[in-house]
Every structure is written in C-alpha cells, then in structure tokens.
Protein: Amidohydrolase
Organism: Methanothermococcus okinawensis
Amino acid sequence: MDILIKDLDYAVDLNLNLYRDIDILLRRGDKGEITIHRGRNLMEKFNLDRRDLKIIEGNRRCAIPGLSNNHTHIPMTLLRGIADDMILQDWLESRIWPNESKLTGEDVYYGALLGCLEMLRFGVTSFNDMYFFPEEIVKGAKEIGIKGAVGFPVIDFGTPQYKDLDKLLRACEEFIKRYLREEKIRPVVAPHAPYTCSRDTYVQCKEISQEYNVPLHTHLSETRYEVVEMENKIGRRPVEYLESIGVLGENLIAAHCVWVTKEEVKKLGRYRVKVVHCPGSNMKLASGGVMPLVEMLKEGVSLSLGTDGPASNNNLDILEEMKICALLHKAHRWDPRVGDVDTVLSMALNSKSIGFENRDVVLLDLKSPHLRPVHNIKSNIVYSANGNDVDTVIVDGEVLLENKRFSRIGDRDLERIYTKVDRVVKKFEVQ
Ligand SMILES: [Zn+2]
C-alpha cells in the first residue's frame, strides 16, 4: 500500500534540502521499488483514492531520511554497562572477552533482536555489523525489518564458532553465498584488524570479497598502540600496510581511522575507502587521537557515522552521535565552524557507503519542550534531538514504528525478549 504523510511541518531530504508545510507520498513501483514524492495535494496530483492509502499524520513533525549506523557490534547490547571507565586493554581482557566467550548462537540472536529494536526505535534504518554468529544477526535483523550489512568476522586466532582459520574462511565464503540475494541483508567479509589478521588472511578475505562483489569491513588505525605495533613488526603504518598488500579500495569500509597521517588520509581518498567515524566510542575508550575530519573532507573521503558496540558507547543512537561528532571536532580544532550541521547530518544519512539506497523515512516528534521553537530545524535535529524523539519509521515502504510503537513486535513479544536477555546475562561475571 502506498503511504501518504500529510501536513508535515518540515522535511529534509538526502541532499539536505529543506521543505516546509509539505506532504510526502511513498509509492511502490512494479518491481517493488519505492519512489518518494514531496509536494502538496499529492492525492489529486496522482489521482489516488484515500482507501488505497495508508495515511500518517505529519502535523508538528519533521521528516528526515533513515539514519545509518555504519560500524557496530550489535549483540554487545548484552554487555552494555558491564564495565566502564577502564583502560582499553584491561577492559577487553578482564571484562569483555571472558564474557563474550560464554555466548551461544541463541544468546547472540537475542542480543541482535534487542539491538535492532533499539536502532529502529531511534530511527536507524540500516547498519553495518561485525560479530560472531553472524547468521543470528541476519535472523534478528530480518525479524525486526531493518536493513543490515552483516559482516562475517575473520580473525587469525578463530571465533567461538570456528577455531581453525581455514575452516573459518571457508565458512565465510559459504555465508557470503547464502545471503547474496537477500533483499534487506548484504553479506560482508569482515577481517577484524591489521593486528589480529595476517597478510595472508587479508589477501584471502579480499579475494572472497572480489569474487562475490561484496564489501570488506575492518577496524583500522583505532589506537596509537596499533600504529606502534605495526611500525615495529612490519615497518609500516596500518593504512600504508593495507595499501602494500592491495587491500585499500572502493569496497573497503574502514572503521575509526583515528591515528592517521596526512599522507594516509590522502591514500584513503585516492583509493575511495569508506571511512566510518565513531566519535563516542573513541572518546569513551580514550583512543587519544581524533579522526582528522577537516583533512578527510578535503581529500574527498566518503565519511559516515557509527556508534561502535554498545559496550563502548553505550547505545546505538545516531542522533546522539551526530552531536558528539560536532562537539568533538570543535573542541579539538578550537574552531566552532568545524563539524557543522550539514556535514554531520550528511554523515549520519550515508547508507550508500554500506550498500543501501536510502528510501526510508523517519518522523521526529516536535511536540517536546526541547525541540521548540524551531529557528533552524537542522540545528534542532543535530544539537537538540535524541533517539527518543523518533516517532515513526518507514523502511522500504513498510511502517515499522508508528507513534513510538513497534508494528511487528507487540508488547508481549517485547517483554519476552527483555526476559530472555535478562536470563542470558545471568551467566556473565560482573566484578
Ligand atoms: Zn568496532
């Protein structure tokens, strides 16, 4: 059924054009594709009957395209708040890894359900993930209905599912083949990081990604420790190293890129690498460096935003991440013009980087004291709003959230998921 959103106060499109007092019509074509029309009197213009339309009230609301969370580890919702304010290595070794090793596929599925619900509630309509048991994440995302680039994690010392690297790489290829033709799922090859994957591993991952024409998703230059270790071991910095083994390219999605030189930024631009900025996680884990936003933009690097896992953020709220991003770069450069509203908004809407067209619509409820008055709606979106202001979410022409209620998941299902999650986390050791 086509959808008409009537009497919107404001709308912002993917090119950040601003509209006032407007209607939006979502029409489904013969091949299932969604076309978005903006204007007034659209029913008359397209000769549509009210009975053939789903009509949504847009009064006192603002429509924006779907938000995209381009680097995350969704099932880490299970580890949210288990340990904060710790040195990164200690945090990983004493709290995160020991507890993660206890997770089963079913546990990961419930973590994924919880995370996908959280993202949907916050207006995030597409994500790019990397975590063990990726088929469980596919299952969770399909149930909730949001779009996911799901990475099959590759790491030299194995995963809970595959201890042997050869078996793991074969399973990776099988995973890619199995999900190649899904509508809302994009399978991705996800070598973890240059310090946990050998040259050989990266090359094999690249071969799989090329053969099936799917993205590669990796962590890159997240910490100073990583850079020093690579320099000592290989004599190159991480970006230079990936260039030397032929991994830099248009299909590479690189998370973080915090500790990079100007030369490395130039390479990222030249090879058209997609960089995902995770300012909240970088600040919380005290990675020290700051992704060089100004230099990245100057070199034309494709930039987007990610929350990283909910254990280092601690939520999946891209509206909040926009504000963190804007503030971090102003403080870092002593320049309030850096990280401006349009720049961070376009980063948050960039689902193209992870392979999804953005035909999604998110409505923000403006009937809240913190969103009045409206001098500049884009300013309110970036600096005043948060995920809780999302009221309605339409993904690929399906209304998945309406008036802050999930359409596919009833209250009883929701309660069942929370109960299950509470049961799963009982096995964790919390010190
Ligand atoms: Zn990460």
About this structure: The domain at 2-65+358-411 is CATH 2.30.40.10 (Urease, subunit C; domain 1). The chain has a mean pLDDT of 96. The pocket of zinc ion is lined by residues 71, 73, 219, 255, 308-309 (CB under 6 Å). The chain has two domains: 2-65+358-411, 67-354.
